[in-house]
Design a protein that fits this description.
Layout (H helix, E strand, L loop, with lengths): L1 H28 L4 H5 L8 E3 L17 E9 L5 E6 L5 E7 L4 E6 H4 L3 E7 L1 H5 L13 E4 L4 E9 L6 H9 L2 E4 L27
Parallel strand pairs: 6-7
Antiparallel strand pairs: 1-2, 2-8, 3-6, 3-9, 4-5, 4-8
Length: 206
């Protein structure tokens, strides 16, 4: 009886391990993942608008028909990416995914607190190669490190009403996702103040 109980427990544990490994490995071995499906319909390092979601036809699963969606399929081999997304009237969000569909960063218009979401995307090595500038802060220049050289940026703009969908699409159409071929210049040190002029020599007595 005890042997049977141990056998059942071992079987359950083994089944759990196999299930976990399968779930974790599926995004890496799948041939029709999101990146592969979007490659024929998107341009590399450019923003491409996706068609609106329909009940029987959707470019990606679980697309909300109330959102306009655009994709930037990026490759950082040629340099960091500069992303600018104008904020729509209702709600705008930007999500970042690795080549294997692992989400690693997200930002929206409320957290950005600006009319334009603007940031730099680069690898850790490219970030380390940037010139040091203590005056550059996260509030002035948002830098995101990508775990992989390739991946997807998903841009979404909400249309609270069907008649506002053209405005949401227009805000995404004005977005830019371009490669920075040259690193930003380092801030030049301020010139030193000129040395004070020497005091005049005292006049001698006659």
């Amino acid at each position: 009886m005890i042997r049977l109980v141990f056998t059942l427990i071992a079987g359950v544990l083994l089944g759990g391990v196999v299930h976990l490994v399968s779930v974790l490995a599926l995004p890496r071995i799948a041939t029709q993942d999101a990146y592969s499906r979007l490659t024929p319909m998107t341009k590399e390092n450019a923003v491409t608008a996706l068609p609106l979601a329909e009940p029987n036809n959707s470019p990606m699963p679980f697309m909300d028909p109330a959102f306009a969606v655009a994709i930037c399929r990026y490759d950082l081999a040629g340099g960091p990416i500069k992303l600018t997304v104008p904020v729509s009237q209702a709600y705008t969000s930007v999500s970042f995914y690795t080549r294997n569909e692992v989400a690693y960063y997200a930002i929206n218009d409320r957290s950005a607190g600006r009319k334009v979401i603007e940031l730099d995307l680069m690898t850790e090595d490219q970030h380390s190669a940037l010139p040091e500038d203590e005056e550059v802060t996260a509030a002035d220049r948002l830098i995101i490190d990508s775990p992989t050289a390739t991946g997807l940026i998903v841009l979404k703009a909400l249309a609270p009403e069907p008649g506002l969908m053209p405005q949401a699409q227009a805000s995404l159409a004005a977005s830019r996702c371009t490669v920075q071929t040259e690193p930003p210049p380092a801030k030049q040190p301020e010139p030193a103040a000129p040395a004070p002029a020497p005091a005049p020599a005292p006049k001698g007595k006659r």
